[in-house]
Design brief:
alpha/beta; 29% helix
Length: 321
């Protein structure tokens, strides 16, 4: 699955510096959470160590900001994070009284941005870039040179699609119809023919019926429906999508009734319901999802009591509220 190092220095996105200061200093909670989860300076892997040094010592705030420009000038990654993380929401008093909730919100924003395209349709997601030790920043320091030797090129009669590029025709009419609706169909990697389908940022023409094309495709492991107009009825089309591992339903109109269509998605590990009207009743439909590891219910009507009941059935699931 895509290894999402999401977040590259969200700390850099909300700064506490004066315009004249020579170096920007990130707000502590953002940098702290990022370093704890994603920077691995003590790793035995040389690539991991170099990546940590790149983040902490070299690129710093230019991960999110444009080098040499005023602090309000953000690159694409910083812009995406700034829509979810607001400085005013993480004041000292709040960090003191509810640190766990504040941390969960930061991590949820990181994960959400990791799933976004780095530069429009056909481009890799921010998470895919980070998994390859590439920062969405400006300048020559944005990439770590990996220590693995470059293999000798092998002649191929027909090269496979590059990672993060649209699948041409192997999936037939279904992929073409998804493209017409503003979605993209991408191969997970050159050596993995699993498919990632993304309607986020381009799915304004997507209707419930349009999801029937998703079910017609083989090996769909990720589906991003964030910000689309899909409702409960649309989820009926993916009810039998047994290969699905990640599902984004953030800021859709999906309700408790729609979650009933997910109960047979036996391989689902990640489900994002941020900003939907779901309640504790909807969580009852998720109890059969034995492989579910991450569930986001931030800004929903789900309660702590409902989460506790879900965790009785799924003790391994991490719920972000």
């Amino acid at each position: 699955m895509i290894r999402c190092r999401a977040v590259l220095s969200a700390a850099c996105c909300l700064l506490t510096l004066s315009v004249a200061a020579p170096a920007a200093r990130a707000i502590p909670p953002f940098m702290k959470e990022f370093q704890a989860k994603y920077a691995k300076p003590d790793s035995a892997d040389e690539n991991e160590k170099a990546f940590a040094a790149l983040i902490i010592e070299t690129t710093k705030c230019n991960v999110c900001h444009v080098q040499g420009e005023p602090k309000k000038a953000r690159n694409a990654y910083g812009t995406a994070l700034s829509k979810l993380l607001k400085k005013g929401d993480f004041g000292a008093e709040r960090l003191k009284t509810e640190p766990e909730k504040a941390t969960a919100e930061i991590v949820a924003a990181f994960d959400a941005v990791a799933a976004e395209k780095s530069a429009g349709d056909g481009s890799p997601t921010f998470g895919e870039m980070l998994a390859q030790f590439k920062l969405p920043a400006d300048g020559p320091a944005a990439t770590v040179a990996t220590t693995e030797p470059t293999p000798e090129p092998m002649p191929e009669p027909a090269p496979a699609p590059a990672e993060g590029t649209p699948v041409a025709e192997p999936s037939g009419d279904a992929a073409a119809e998804i493209n017409k609706l503003g979605g993209s169909v991408m191969q997970l990697a050159q050596n993995d023919d699993s498919l990632v389908i993304d309607f986020h940022l381009g799915g304004t023409a997507l209707t419930n019926d349009g999801l029937a094309h998703v079910k017609a495709l083989p090996k769909v492991v990720e589906l991003n429906l964030k910000d689309t107009q899909v409702t409960d009825d649309g989820l009926a089309h993916i009810a039998g999508l047994g290969t699905l591992v990640r599902l984004h339903l953030e800021q859709t109109k999906v309700t408790d009734a729609g979650l009933a269509h997910l109960k047979d998605l036996g391989n689902l590990e990640y489900l994002n319901l941020y900003g939907t009207p779901v309640t504790d009743a909807g969580l009852e439909h998720l109890k059969p999802l034995a492989k579910l590891k991450k569930l986001y219910v931030w800004q929903t009507q789900v309660t702590d009591e409902g989460i506790a009941k879900l965790k009785e059935a799924l003790p391994e699931v991490t719920v972000v509220k």
